[in-house]
């Protein structure tokens, strides 16, 4: 690392702009890993961690780094009366929720969903006209992904309903 002072906010601000991801963000990721692997962004008042080992360490230390205050940059500092998703919880609550849903993510369940997902993806790709750019393409693609969690929940609920009573999805 150079002895020059790095403006970490200027370096990380592009990560807050959705247009960054419409292009090629990978050179920026590489620069962050090389120059500022743990960087402070003063625009939102948060820290950004870019090296795999550091990300893993953060994810395994809920006492120092919590998920309950937000997991997306636009949520940082948010206060929730109840967590909007299980991803917004920390142990021991997260562990309890994860134990409930984990069987629904077994490889055999995921393989069973693949034909339906592939069929939806093919049908969507078939609607795209070659060489034509559309503003609503992203929203169309999300149709596939919006439906999938509901199907997973139904499969998980079906598997657990007789053994565990009602499955609560947070």
What are the main properties of this structure?
single chain; 170 residues; mainly alpha; two-stranded antiparallel sheet; 2 strands; disordered C terminus
Provide an overview of this structure:
This protein has helices spanning 8-12, 18-22, 26-35, 52-59, 93-101, 107-126, 137-164; strands at 38-41, 46-49. Among the domains are: 8-60, no CATH class; 100-164. The protein has a two-stranded antiparallel ribbon. The chain is mainly alpha-helical and 170 residues long. β1 (38-41) and β2 form a beta hairpin. Helices cover 50% and strands 5% of the residues.
Q: Compute the gyration radius: what is it?
A: 20 Å
Average pLDDT reading:
77
Widest β-sheet, arrangement of strands: 1-2
SS strand fraction: under 5%
Are there runs of 5+ residues with pLDDT below 50, and where? 153-170
Helix content: 40-55%
Order of helices and strands: HHHEEHHHH
**Straight-line distance between termini:** 43 Å
Largest sheet: 2 strands, antiparallel
The chain-level structural class is mainly alpha
- Strand tally, please? 2
Shape: extended
How many helix segments?
A: 7
């Amino acid at each position: 690392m150079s002895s020059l002072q790095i403006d970490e906010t200027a370096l990380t601000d592009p990560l807050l702009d959705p247009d960054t991801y419409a292009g090629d963000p990978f050179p920026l990721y590489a620069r962050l890993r090389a120059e500022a692997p743990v960087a402070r962004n003063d625009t939102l008042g948060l820290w950004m961690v870019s090296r795999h080992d550091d990300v893993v360490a953060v994810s395994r230390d809920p006492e120092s780094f919590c998920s309950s205050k937000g997991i997306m940059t636009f949520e940082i500092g948010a206060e929730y009366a109840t967590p909007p998703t299980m991803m917004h919880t920390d142990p021991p609550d997260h562990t309890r929720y994860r134990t409930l849903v984990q069987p629904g993510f077994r490889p055999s369940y995921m393989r069973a969903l693949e034909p339906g997902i592939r069929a939806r993806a093919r049908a969507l790709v078939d609607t795209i006209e070659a060489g034509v750019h559309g503003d609503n393409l992203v929203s169309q693609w999300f149709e596939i992904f919006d439906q999938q969690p509901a199907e997973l929940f139904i499969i998980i609920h079906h598997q657990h309903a007789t053994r565990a009573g009602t499955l609560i999805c947070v």
